[in-house]
Amino acid sequence: LIADGGIHYPGDIAKALAAGAQAVMIGNLLAGTEESPGSIITKDGRRYKLYRGMAGVGANLAKKDSENSEVEDQLLLDEMTPEGVDALVPYRGTVKEVLRQLVGGLRSGMSYSGARHIKELQQKAQFVRLTSAGIAESRVHDVREL
Questions:
Q1: What gap in Å lies between CA 57 and CA 102, rounded to an integer?
Q2: Which domain holds residue 81?
Q3: Is the domain of 41 the same as that of 79?
Q4: How many CB atoms are closer than 10 A to CB 66?
Q5: Domain total of the chain
Q6: Rounded distance, CA 66 to CA 64, Å?
Q7: Phi-psi sector, 132: left (phi>0), alpha (psi -120 to 50), beta
Q8: How many angstroms separate the CA atoms of 6 and 101, rounded?
Q9: In this structure, what are the phi and psi dihedrals at residue 11, rounded to the nearest 5 degrees?
Q10: What is the pLDDT of residues 62-98, one digit of tens each?
């Protein structure tokens, strides 16, 4: 079972694995890194990278022959069923730093259930219902992130 989607914070990885996932997709989190392809764009004083989900329209058209006519491009678009998106994602620094944060979040999440490894996390984890206020309180709040 692979968790694909909904991974926005380090704790989301721990939750997905605790729920039984054997792997998680984190392309969106890595798309904003220094090493990922794409230009860094500054918008409203914040830095972003252009992210093309590999099943998105932009990525699919980029894979096609650049000499296609407009009519051929439209036919390709009509036949395509895009699954990814083209978007701006926050610039996150290096892959090394992002992975350090994700591993730290996973370790922290595992510590809540006293788990030393993922199998133990899946056995020991307990899920509790949170209100929207509880979710907001569990994240960074009352400060302005840099």
A1: 29
A2: 34-91
A3: yes
A4: 6
A5: 2
A6: 6
A7: alpha
A8: 17
A9: -65, -25
A10: 555 555 555 455 555 555 555 566 788 899 999 999 9
24 contacts 2 by C-beta, under 8 angstroms: yes
Biggest CA pair distance of the chain: 60
- The helix (run of H) or strand (run of E) holding residue 33 is none
51 and 82 in a common domain? yes
**Domain termination residue (choose one: 74, 91, 108):** 91
Could you tell me if residue 146 is inside a domain?
A: no
Q: Element (H or E) spanning 134, and its range?
A: helix 132-138
Closest CA to 113 of 128, 101, 123, 104: 123
Task: Please indicate, yes or no, whether residues 68 and 101 belong to a single structural domain of this protein.
Answer: no
Statement to judge: residues 131 and 85 lie in one domain: no
Nearest-angstrom CA–CA distance, 37 and 27: 12
Q: What residue type is 80 in one-letter code?
A: M
- What pLDDT is stored for residue 87 in this prediction? 83
Amino acid occupying residue 137: E
Sequence-ordered alpha helix ranges (H) in 1-131: 10-18, 27-31, 57-63, 70-79, 95-112, 118-124
Provide the terminal-to-terminal Cα distance of the chain, rounded to the nearest Å: 35
Q: Is residue 40 located within the same domain as residue 71?
A: yes
